[in-house]
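queue> holo job accepted (heme C)
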Amino acid sequence: MTATRSRALLPTLWATALLALARAPEASVASQVVAPITGHPAELIAGVSAPPLGLPEVPRPDQNPLTAAGIDLGRKLFFDRRLSFNRTLSCAMCHVPEQGFTQNELRTPVGIEGRFVKRNAPSLLNVAYRQVLFHDGREDSLENQVWQPLLRSNEMANPSIGVVLNTIREAKDYAGLFEAAFEQGLTAQTVGMALASYQRVLLAANSPFDRWHFGNEPDAMGEAAIRGWTVFRDSGCIGCHTVAGNHAHFTDDAFYDTGIGYARSFGPGREAQRVRLAPGVEIVPEVQFDQPEASDLGRYEATGRSADRWLYRVPTLRNVAITAPYMHDGSLPDLEAVVDHYQRGGIAHPGLDPRIRPLALSEQDRHDLVDFLRSLTGSSIEHLVRDARSQPIGDAQ
Ligand code: HEC
Ligand code: HEC
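queue> job finished
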């Protein structure tokens, strides 16, 4: 894309951003009269102790035991718009409960004041099980992760940890809550602990697939989806989107190159720009100068190793039917497009994972595969949304 075209695009981007803010799901929900539903943290803790069919024991760090007070406080923080610098943006506006705790309307969410965020927001359903966080795996603890959105200038844009702590300290409705939930009271650590506690209980499994495969209920899954499960295994999907003997995460939490990241940098119309350092010595710079959007080098951004360029974490496929759009950049709008991507063999280039190769799936196979992916939606979604909406939105007051 040329610089001129990118300037011409800017007003459109702004219009999209403003439209998105106007449509922000928080706003519409807040203005409706919603019947009050009480959150049931005790029930949520019970769900963690006995996870839904298809999920193993939930990892629970000793330093942050799950308590009802911690979950309630985390939920309150998650929905609090005051936690962003200009008091407009909550976690829940990019991780929308009704939209699979991600955002279905935009490829990549819009940050504070309409700022560009380069990656698609992952669903937070089952995030308790992720061994690495973010598409590039640059964080591995939910407790620490929260400071990234809170402080990033294009997300919630707080200038410091102290500013966030002061905001909470000054909000009357938080009086005593941190002290009740944590011995230390309000600290940078306990903000992370509370938000992590809430996110850790967002479990969604016991899907038609789980009931059919792990629960031995022959009628739980339709015939097309059952055929799709065979296509899924025979096409090698299961090599990265893994299924164990008694549970399934549909991810091995590792990083691979499927061509999406490369295409974003160098795909059609974006030829690699080479820079001549000396006669006969040319390099492809990490950052391409003609790209208006931030470059995205995937796992490299967490490790600095050039072999890690364009590798992305394998996303879970649980609940995938409700978490469109897909891939780290949200570039594929629906499951059919994802299956077409794999049918073509990803995007050929040096570095493509050897397991991504053209498939010869019939139209029926592709349809069945999509049906299988649709059978992975958990049975607790509605419940989690109701629980989430038991929380009044934290707003300027
Ligand atoms: C402006 C939109 C936005 C806001 C606000 C936001 N997030 Fe996110 N979130 C994202 C995006 C985009 C990513 C992926 C970023 C990446 O991979 O580099 C992400 C990633 C995450 C992840 C990692 C999930 C995974 O599977 O790796 C967690 C956990 C998370 N966010 C929780 C939160 C919490 C808690 C808050 C509030 C404190 C929050 N987010 C606020 C957009 C947002
Ligand atoms: C070599 C490992 C590998 C194999 C094999 C593989 N995938 Fe993936 N899959 C990935 C990675 C990595 C991503 C994320 C890519 C990105 O974010 O750019 C992904 C993304 C996806 C997504 C998007 C999920 C989301 O939330 O964005 C779906 C759906 C999917 N794969 C289905 C499949 C199917 C169906 C097959 C078999 C035809 C398959 N995958 C084979 C590694 C693999």
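queue> Residues 1-37, 288-292 have pLDDT under 50 and may be disordered.
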